[in-house]
Amino acid sequence: MTSVEYTIIAYIIGLSLMLGYAAWLLYELTALPRRQRRMQKHRRS
Amino acid sequence: MMSGPTKIFLLAYTLAALASLGAAIGVLVFYTPEEASMGPIQKIFYLHMPMAISTLLACMVVFIGSMGYLLQRKRWWDDLAASSAKVAVLLCTGVLITGMIWGKSAWGDWWLWTPRLTFSLMLWLLYVVYLVVRNSIDSPQRRAVVSGVYGMCAFIDVPLVWLSARLIPDVHPASISLSGEMRFTLMLWFVAVTLMAAGLIMARYGLYRLQRRQDEAMDRGFEVVAAGVGGGVA
Fold it and tell me: Does the CB of B22 have a partner CB in chain A at under 8 Å?
């Protein structure tokens, strides 16, 4: 592998770690209140 | 539940972090010159170093959160410490992987047992164990106290990582000289990575609080249901 390929792989791994975790957190932050509302509705019925 | 201003802040922060990251990538690809002796592989440095500094800062937040909890016994300090520990492990993983790729390309070895690399691996292990210990304790109060004491002890490795390359011979240089363009790129990557790291800690912290509120609401619901059943029987 060339040094350019090594560099690209390093950036892909490093940024994927941070962006992947950020995406999961944002998803959970928006999904949790929805889940909570659904559970409350279910409990009321 | 998230309020309107919180949603707007979350959106604005996400956009700012992504914009700074986009700018940093653009500058890295189109503007930053290649280093004369190492060539393109040296460009890993612009991600590797800001991630390493952010790791140490996240560890410092774990220390502050742990100390805050042990002094005041308020749950939010513990939530802050736990959020920072998760981000510290994530960033440290990135630092180790990018460093290994750099080492393989530049020196032909994935790993060298030099002081800084060894202390960095120790740091990663210490904070992974922090998370394992947290997950293994059921009682919230007990978990917070044990994590608080452990979080303060684990911080001992941070100055060792910081000082190792300065005091002991290592593959990492004790100081670096960069051209103006390189310094500008490094500064941009510092801003982007720090914004992302701080955002991850805040988001994880917000998620802890939301989960807590949901658990409390569920507990209240069960109490109401239990009281209703009890009343019916009586």
Answer: no
